[in-house]
Amino acid sequence: MFGSLGITELILILVIVLIIFGAGKLPQLGEGIGKAIKGFKKSVHEADAIEAEAQAAQQQMAAAPQAITSAPPQATTVDQPAATVQQPTRA
């Protein structure tokens, strides 16, 4: 698809980009595209690391099954004094 682009087509595209964005905006545009690509690559690598971490956790869970207890959890009560509310007096 891109193999058929010649030097004249690339120059034409560059001229159109210069007309649309202007020479002053091109460095900002390039910087923004570079940051976007860098962020995309970083998120892809983080997703791979998270996926590998999840697989390792699943393997650990399968290797060491947990003992299941049948005792229900016990509830604890806390005794707190009741707060008294005083009405403001009007004079």
Q: What does this molecule look like?
A:
The structure is a single chain. This protein is mostly helical and 91 residues long. It has a domain at 27-63. The protein has helices spanning 7-21, 26-63.
Question: What can be said about this structure in brief?
Answer:
With 91 residues, the chain is mainly α.
Topology:
Blueprint: H1 7-21, H2 26-63
Helix-residue proportion = 55-70%
Order of H and E elements: HH
Radius of gyration of CA atoms, rounded to a whole number: 33 Å
Largest sheet: none
Number of helices: 2
Q: How big a fraction of the residues is strand?
A: under 5%
Instruction: Identify the overall geometry.
Output: elongated
How much is the average pLDDT? 78
Record keyword descriptors for this entry:
single chain; mainly alpha
